[in-house]
Amino acid sequence: RAAVSKPGGIDGAGPGGVAGSQTKMVRRKMDWEDLKFLRRIVRRGVRVDEEWRTTWQGYCLEWKIGPDLSVVPPKDPLTMFVERNMYQLVNKEWAKDLMFRDE
Fold first, then answer.
1. Are 83 and 71 in contact (CB under 8 A)?
2. How many Å apart are CA 41 and CA 39, to the nearest integer?
3. Which of 1, 7, 86, 92 has its CA 20 to 30 A from that of 27?
4. Of 24, 25, 27, 23, which is closest to residue 86 (Cα–Cα)?
5. Which of 63, 43, 39 is nearest to 53 (CA)?
6. Taking a C-beta distance cutoff of 8 angstroms, is the pair 12, 19 a contact?
7. pLDDT per residue rounded down to tens, the chain (103 residues)
């Protein structure tokens, strides 16, 4: 349970209002063999991000694969899509918990 900061900060809490909440987010190492995890990344983006969905659909047309993520897509197109879009991915709010972990 988080401590609530009192006015004036007399409880020792930092600016976030929680004492000792200095966690550092570090990027997770990608396991390019874990196709279920890669599919999970793509699927989450397709559900919540129109730009990501459009990019995925265009990529599927390029590779001549179906955009349906109910089954794991072939390894090469899936890994290449995530790799090509890594810069956008690490900056997407919906992907933070997948791409980073607390240290």
1. no
2. 5
3. 1
4. 27
5. 43
6. yes
7. 444 433 444 444 434 444 455 678 888 899 999 999 999 999 999 999 999 999 999 999 999 999 999 888 999 999 999 999 999 999 999 999 999 988 8
